[in-house]
Amino acid sequence: MHVAQANEAPNHFRSSAARPSSLTLLRTAVAEVLSRRHLIRYLLRANLKKQGTDTILGNVWWLLDPLISMVIYVIVMTYIFQRRTPDFPLFLLAAMVPFKWFTGSISGGVGSITGNGQLIKQIQFPKLVLPLTAVVAELVNLVFGIVILLAMLVLVYPAHASFLVLWIPVIAVVQLFFTLSLAIVLSAVTVFYRDIGNLISHLMRLLLYTAPIIWSFDDVQGRGSQLEAAIGHAGFVILKDNPLAILLESYRHVIYGVANGTEWLPPVPPDLIQLGIILLVSLGLCALAIILFKRLEPAFAKVL
User: Fold this and answer.
1) Burial 266-296, CB ≥16 within 10 A → b, else e
2) Which residues are CB-contacts of 186 (< 8 A; sequence separation ≥ 6)?
3) How far is Cα 180 from Cα 187, in angstroms, rounded to an integer?
4) Per-residue pLDDT tens over the stretch 80-128
């Protein structure tokens, strides 16, 4: 079965007979998505309704999930590992909420095509709406998480509150395009190589510890030199300057401030140059991802 799937994608992708140009595919994809706005809304409602199905509390879990995760990590890091980061719950939640949006979107995007095999076989529609819907649906979790975060900021940690939180939507837009580009590529490639889904689930767990969530590059000090010695300078640069790390630190800078040992510095604006570069790169990656997706799309029904 895996052999047949693995052979299907390359053969189709290399077929050059009467293939539309990349620009034509890109225009077609955008037009298809815009013309299927009603379908996207329907899929979004179905996706959100499904998340609350078979649970007593239903969609209340959108509020409880980030709170429970925060409590667990605060207990582990504060009482077991003796972390002394001031106002650690806010420090943690400022990066955890957008991180959960990223991991939820990638996980949902990976299975968005393979999980709708029967629908794809029975109905003719632009398959691109599936990974798009998976990413946008996770925005609801982000919104609820941000609501909790801002409430905590105002009621519990007012010293951290500032108008710099108005940068959150800007950072979220950059993250949206970055995440969408990855979700589109992975959703298409996973159709032919199912092992990618298993690999991504493990990588998401690894990211929890390698991304600046329970720690920050602002406060690595001696540990930073130890980490650099362990993984090498190139590995440390990748760990510090990859788009996800920059995005998470940007959220933390405008919500919490800057971690500084047993103290903290007030919130600072995000690095707009870094965010601008990530946005431009993400838009380019989105275009390439859509082109790849459209090249592989005609083989989805046959492989599934």
Assistant:
1) ebeebeeebbeebbeebeebbbebbbbbbbb
2) 106, 109, 110, 131, 196, 200
3) 10
4) 656 678 888 899 889 999 998 999 999 999 989 998 888 888 888 889 9
**Alpha carbon 76 to chain centroid distance?**
25
Q: Which amino acid is at 171?
A: I
Integer Cα distance of 105 and 108 in angstroms: 5
CA angle 64, 67, 73 (to 5 degrees): 140
**Of 251, 231, 284, 102, nearest in space to 168 by CA:** 251
d(CA 77, CA 122): 50
Q: Could you tell me which of 183, 17, 207 has the C-alpha nearest to residue 110? A: 183
Note the pTM of the prediction, 2 decimals.
0.85
In contact, 82 and 180? CB cutoff 8 Å: no
Q: For the chain, how many residues are written?
A: 304
How buried is 96 (Cβ within 10 angstroms: 0-12 exposed, 13-18 middle, 19+ buried)?
buried
Q: Count CB atoms within 10 A of the CB of residue 172.
A: 18
Q: Which two tokens stand for residue 302?
A: 């046959």
